[in-house]
Amino acid sequence: MTVTIGRRELLAALGSAAAWPLAARAQQPTMPVVGFANAGSSDPPLAAAFRKGLNEAGYFEGQNVTVEYHWLEGQFDRLPALMADLVRRRVAVIATPAGNYAAQVAKAATTTIPIVFGVGEDPVKLGLVASLARPGGNLTGINFFASELEAKRLQLLHELVPKAVRIAVLVNPANPATESAQRDMPDAARALGLQIQVLKASTKSEIEAAFATLVRDRADALHVAGDVFFTSRRVQFATLAASYRIPAIYPSREAVEAGGLMGYATDRVDMWRQVGVYAGQVLKGAKPADLPVLQSTKFEFVINMQTARALGIEVPNSIQLLADELIE
User: Fold this and answer.
1) Are residues 237 and 323 in the same domain?
2) 179 and 274 belong to one structural domain
3) 85: domain range?
4) One digit per residue, pLDDT tens: the chain, 328 residues?
């Protein structure tokens, strides 16, 4: 038996078939978006650590999650507008892996979108969470103790270079967290019998100018304060310190790997990974209010032995034994 299909029926059938792919696409869920905000420059190793954390939680960029990376190149004043835009577009999670101010601006921008932070001070004192065990609200994350480590770095610098009395301390005035992070520095310097000279820089050219100033003023050594922009400029710091033959201590192991003399800091790679893990758990449905704030337990004291030799510094065995790693 032959069935004849009229022109009208044929067009209707073709139209329905053509619509199938569109309907199928329309039914596919939209991937959640993580708004990632960092006041420093692009840092591939740390971004990779954040992605690794997401992967551990079951999320893979481009497959079941989209990550929007925003690196602000030290321009902290851009954070309020960025957070407002992320909130307006209703991203699934806001991640601020490093920086008190970024977390505070995010908190001020929304009480509903989950925020996962990394901060250098007690998040309870910063007003971010109600308590470490039960954060409450829409924020949780990790405390990496940046402020508490500043005085310890000064002590380690003094132990390695005991003849250094005049210490230049370089801070970033554009970072709103700078003042609180440096609060223990004067007392620590007096206890060690050191004189400190505070220098300020918030751009590449200002870093160069600061080095020229500390050389002109005959500083014996340099203490680089913890700051996300400074960390992203670690190669510049190491190059200038080598050029001027200035012993310096840094707030990250990455600076030592780039040629800096020594560093003492939280294991930042592990910290950024954990921020990624928490962001993934929130995407799965966990509430920040129920995720306890983590505290860094891994700290690294690293010395670049090659740089020490280039500066004519002999590293005593006692200090070598204190170090977690000696880079040759």
Assistant:
1) yes
2) no
3) 33-145+268-298
4) 444 445 554 444 445 444 444 444 444 458 999 999 998 888 898 999 999 999 999 999 999 999 999 999 889 999 999 999 999 999 999 999 988 899 999 999 999 999 999 998 899 999 999 999 999 999 999 998 777 788 889 999 999 999 999 999 999 999 887 777 677 788 889 999 999 999 999 999 999 999 999 999 999 999 999 888 898 899 999 999 999 999 999 988 889 999 999 999 888 889 999 999 999 999 999 999 999 999 988 889 999 999 999 999 999 999 999 999 999 8
Establish if 316 belongs to a structural domain: yes
Are 209 and 158 in a shared domain?
yes
Residue at 283 is within a domain: yes
303 phi, psi to nearest 5 deg: -125, 135
Please state, in angstroms and rounded to a whole number, the distance separating the CA atoms of residues 84 and 306: 46
CB 129 within 8 A of CB 135: yes
Residue 136 counted as domain residue: yes
CA dist 256 and 254 (Å) reads 5
CB-based contacts of 202: which residues, under 8 Å, 6+ apart?
Answer: 74, 172, 173, 174, 175, 229
Whether residue 138 is found in the same domain as residue 54: yes
- 107 with 172, same domain? no
Q: Model's pTM, two decimal places?
A: 0.80
Q: Report residue 244: phi and psi, to 5°.
A: -90, 0
Is the domain of 139 the same as that of 195?
Answer: no
Are residues 176 and 241 both part of a single domain? yes
d(CA 282, CA 285): 5
